[in-house]
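Can you please make up a whole protein chain along with its backbone structure tokens because I've never seen that pairing?
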Amino acid sequence: MEHVQQVEPFDYVIFGATGDLTMRKLLPALYNRLRMGQIPDDARIIGTARTDIDRDGYVARAKEALERFIPDDVRSPVLVDRFLGLLHYVTLDGTKADSEWSALSSILSEAPADRIRVYYFATAPQLYGRICENLHSHNLVSPHSRVVLEKPIGTDMATATAINDGVGQYFPENQVYRIDHYLGKETVQNVLALRFANPIMNAVWSAEQIESVQITAAETVGVEGRASYYDTSGAMRDMIQNHLLQVLCLVAMEAPDSLEADTVRNAKLAVLNALRPITDETVASETVRAQYTAGVVGGQSVPGYLEELGQPSNTETYAAVRAWVDTPRWKGVPFYIRTAKRSARKVSEIVIRFRAAPTALFGATPPGNRLVIRIQPNEGVELQLNVKNPALDAYTLRTADLDTTIRMEGGLPFPDSYERLLLDAVRGNPVLFIRRDEVEAAWRWAEPVLKAWSENQVPMQTYSAGSYGPEKSAALLADKGDKWHEDME
């Protein structure tokens, strides 16, 4: 672990510190970074929420969360006690000017004025602007402050602009960190390494050799206890407009001159700006939306989305889009993006389908090679090649897989995506965070689709829970002679 470096002392102030995100993700992520030696002993984690409890009560909740979400083999009683010793708590309604801001100010004033402060907003996005206003009015914003914004940044362009404007009144853009946990995933970050550190990949990464690209994020779970929230969001807003468009950018971007944050983000922005608009005339042919009905997942019968919700709904739990990146590199190459709840299997992956070899040497034209980048689970890279079938004397081909699983040293699990991102905010490294113009470019592309769907220009399909999606989705690819990855296997 000689490469692990401790960050500077910091104060991490979490608004919404008693919520599910904090307990399930943020506190375990910070504990793991302490375990790895990256958090100094004089760092402080200051929880704030409207919940009226004292520090001991908060520490007890945090301890329960660590016992629940940290595996036994990496949960040390000594380290847990050290971590809990970093915790503070203030009962505070961040949206009210007359709330207990003096208590938070008092805790923060105990540290040097030049100490790094990270304000993490694990709250509803519509509250971000008000909290920033109160931080400013109570003189808690300094040149060493950063604010981390959880998604979603709005539900459309207008609300995203309002959120960004509200935060931007008090924090300059270089102090705003819009988090997208997908960019914290090691396999997503590995896309840049695979593309630009391997000449063999870089040489074939264009329309000249690539037939199509698929980006999939599917889950076997349904909306369950999140049905009321999910019904205001849907698959397009929840996954495609942010997470999967970011993955598309890494696949399609031109090589940046460096890994400096704005250089990388400029390259991603160029991809977003090159996305071909989906119009009223093309939305029905380029998109599919659907809701899951009752079915069987993992041997268990599960209800349909409308049954879980308990009311009619026009919200999609499945979305598939055929996108086009109008740059010379990607001319004529379709990018298929899809996401689903209650899918047949849990998988996040990128599938690069290469063009077939233009030869009749072996009789029928051999199928094109496929590169599969497994984001999760079983993180790794698989390259499918055509080889001679050794069971036959004739030159008959079959497919062989070169399959590499990417593992941590010692067989340890991959760090949770929040771990790196939380400390990157302390380091002041925004390379894996989203810049405002990226958010706006993504909304410009996604919003016409959402508007057309709300007007029922694209019929709502259905698919059985435990399946891969509606039949219409397969037709979306068949139109260009393509198939979804699972149909090629």
In short: The longest strand covers residues 210-218. DSSP finds 17 helices and 17 strands in the chain.
